[in-house]
Amino acid sequence: MHSSEIIKELKFKAIRSSGAGGQHVNKTSSKIELTFDLENSLALSDKEKETLKEKLASKLTKEHQLIIFCEETRSQHKNKELAIKRFLGLLKTSLIKPKKRRPTKPSRSSILKNVEKNKRNSLKKALRKKPRLD
């Protein structure tokens, strides 16, 4: 994954943001809408695209586009930077392959410790009962 090539493929759109801003809020478009077309990306390999489609299925549109909004600050430029950081972080975490689990057996000593602990526990609980008069 080449982040510089991917950033070139991003599309940005400035929208009027909601929230605080006073008189200024109605004049500026500080909210950023970042759009990335996963299907037609040239920076990602086919394998990477398939992985991202699986992992980001809930975040993608029907046309396989990823849309991220950012309206945290009152500055359009800072919102754009934050949206790019969020987007790249999302891609990096989604492309990480989980390590394969190697099944292991518990060691002999750990099995013996468990058996001994269970015996002590059962003896402790048995001593709490009323004695049987047989």
From TrEMBL:
Belongs to the prokaryotic/mitochondrial release factor family. One of its GO terms (molecular function) is ribosome binding. Residues 96-134 are annotated as: Disordered. GO terms for biological process: rescue of stalled ribosome. It comes from Polaribacter dokdonensis DSW-5. Residues 16-32 form the Prokaryotic-type class I peptide chain release factors domain. Gene3D superfamilies: 3.30.160.20. This is Class I peptide chain release factor. Signal peptide: none annotated. Residues 120-134 have a biased composition (Basic residues).
